[in-house]
Amino acid sequence: QVQLVESGGGLVQVGGSLTLSCTTSGYNFSTSNMSWYRQTPGTARDWVAIIGGSGRVKKYADFVRGRFTISRDNAKNTMYLQMTDLKAADTAVYYCRSLQYWGQGIQVTVSN
After folding, report:
1. How far apart are CA 100 and CA 73, in angstroms?
2. What is the C-alpha to C-alpha distance for residues 48 and 35, in angstroms, rounded to an integer?
3. What whole-number distance in Å separates Cα of residue 97 and Cα of residue 50?
4. Which residue in 36, 12, 9 sits closest to 20, CA to CA?
5. Measured between alpha carbons, how far apart are the two ends of the chain, in Å?
6. Using one digit for the tens of pLDDT, what is the confidence trace for 55-110?
């Protein structure tokens, strides 16, 4: 059974940092592209970043480029999202995704 589980969310002040993790099981993690998305109430889910299976290829949405870093550890079947210089607008539920599978989401709240 495929599982994707996010962790590391929480409350942080504007300008602060937070690192999310997405731990996976049940499929071939090392060959799969992995993505982060985020969503606020009443809006569509937005793509944030993607990383290739080897970790060499990384792409970011404009609104996080330069502040967020996506990475992965294939030995641990885990993907990360290091978030720095957080803004109130980054407040959202963050989801990891691989293929057709999604995590349950984790709340990130950035307070003024």
Report:
1. 20
2. 7
3. 9
4. 9
5. 40
6. 999 999 999 999 999 999 999 999 999 999 999 999 999 999 999 999 999 999 99
